[in-house]
Write a structure and sequence with these properties.
15 strands, 4-stranded antiparallel β-sheet, about 220 residues, alpha+beta, 2 helices
Length: about 220
């Protein structure tokens, strides 16, 4: 009888040990799942510019005292056809990169990509245009100026705006000698905006045709 009692105790003890291990394993799995959820949530807690501008649940205000964006291009960046990336400007963690220089038939074409950091709930962004309740309006082409190092204006052949906050422009090949030592860009048309999500519980992301991804809008000099 005593022998049987010991067997029962050992089995009960083993069973309780299994339960403890099971609880510990479940707890560890739960913590792992929670950490993965937090990582995924924080790593994807960014939105696109389109979803902010096109969503009525966001409040957007222009920063009025924002200084015009200006930067210089080094001569070694523009001496040949290239797709090398060079950071030319940064504000509020938003970065502008020169991403392409193309020597076309009649001009040299420079393309810039704007990398935006856009938290879902609130933040800021830069955009080459005016955002109003009545719609989104591209910046006038006169607000982008290309200058020599001694501040003489260089006429652009073409200006492209978009998609998103990207932009581009061309310089006539006959002006190539004016940029051989580099040149400057002043872009008053890029504006700084602050935004916040009015009610995160009822945010429905809508992208009307006016803000969907599309090729750059081009303005050609006459």
């Amino acid at each position: 009888m005593l022998h049987l009692s010991n067997i029962v105790k050992r089995k009960v003890g083993g069973f309780m040990k299994l339960i403890r291990y099971g609880i510990l394993l479940t707890l560890m799995i739960g913590i792992t799942v929670f950490l993965v959820y937090i990582y995924v949530k924080t790593s994807t807690d960014n939105v696109t510019l389109d979803s902010i501008v096109s969503n009525k649940d966001y409040n957007i205000t222009q920063v009025k005292d924002h200084s015009p964006i200006s930067f210089s291009l080094e001569p070694e960046w523009i001496s040949k056809h290239t797709n090398d990336k060079h950071k030319v400007f940064e504000i509020n963690q938003h970065q502008i990169f020169l991403v392409s220089v193309k020597y076309r038939e009649n001009d040299i074409y420079f393309s810039f990509h704007t990398k935006l950091k856009l938290p879902k709930k609130k933040g800021s962004f830069i955009y080459p245009g005016t955002i109003q309740d009545s719609g989104v309006f591209s910046t006038p082409r006169e607000e982008l100026r290309v200058l020599t190092l001694d501040n003489k204006i260089i006429q652009t052949t073409q200006i492209g705006i978009g998609p998103s906050s990207d932009f581009s422009f061309g310089i006539n090949k006959t002006d190539q000698d004016k940029i051989i030592d580099g040149f400057k860009v002043e872009f008053e048309g890029i504006k700084l905006y602050n935004y916040f999500l009015k009610d995160p519980r009822h945010a429905a992301f809508r992208t009307p045709s006016s803000m969907r991804q599309h090729p750059p809008r081009l303005f050609t000099s006459i």
